[in-house]
Design goal:
By secondary structure, the protein is an alpha+beta fold. It has helices at about 1-10, 15-35, 35-50, 55-65, 75-95, 120-125, 165-180; strands spanning about 70-75, 100-105, 110-115, 135-145, 145-155, 185-190, 195-200.
Length: about 200
């Protein structure tokens, strides 16, 4: 019944709301493609240590992938891009990053929109803590033929009121509404120690 109601409701979404979702979806895409703070951090690191050719190459490879023109890519390629993002972030901003990856990729060629997973990773890295071994950042990704699940957990940042209230998350949720409608579920919650985001995409 809930899915039927959601389908009926989504078919009657006012046109102006659809336009708002579309605009915010575009912002979400661009913020993932061009993360200004990350790029500035990488450039500063390169200027400070121009002899670190391995980091320079990692940065150039990341940029080459980010500016490719395809709007749909394989789940495997999206996960690879996320790993590159996390690596660059760890090299620029964190002396030690405690992170646990769990992957169950049964259908690596599943075609998904580019950068549809990255915002939850960005939110965890920029808004949370991830250098405490007792509370590592956890990224769990499962890819099946008709479903993709992403679960991200990080140690809470007590200096912000609510990790799910920011422009990155607002634009991302609009993108999910615009591109997936009732074919997605996003749950975000926190306790005294951890913040968790759980995303399900249905294809």
């Amino acid at each position: 019944m809930d899915r039927l109601w959601n389908r009926l409701w989504s078919s009657k979404v006012p046109e102006n709301l659809q336009e708002q979702w579309k605009d915010k979806a575009t912002l979400s895409y661009l913020n993932s493609q061009v993360d200004v703070a990350l790029l500035r951090g990488c450039l500063n690191k390169i200027k400070d240590d121009p002899n670190d050719t391995s980091f320079l190459q990692a940065f150039l490879d990341y940029q080459d992938i980010a500016f490719q023109t395809e709007t749909m890519i394989s789940a495997d390629a999206e996960i690879n891009f996320i790993e590159r993002y996390v690596y660059l972030f760890s090299q620029v901003f964190v002396g030690h990053m405690s992170i646990v990856w769990t992957k169950k990729i049964e259908y690596p060629n599943l075609s998904i929109p580019r950068f549809i997973l990255l915002p939850l990773i960005q939110n965890a890295l920029w808004q949370g803590y991830h250098a405490i071994e007792k509370y590592p950042m956890k990224i769990k990704i499962s890819v099946f033929e008709k479903n993709l699940l992403l679960d991200v957990t990080n140690h809470v940042n007590h200096h912000i009121v609510d990790q799910k209230i920011n422009d990155t998350m607002e634009n991302f949720q609009a993108r999910l509404q615009f591109e997936f409608g009732d074919r997605h579920t996003l749950i975000m919650n926190s306790n005294a120690h951890t913040f968790r985001s759980n995303l399900t995409l249905r294809f």
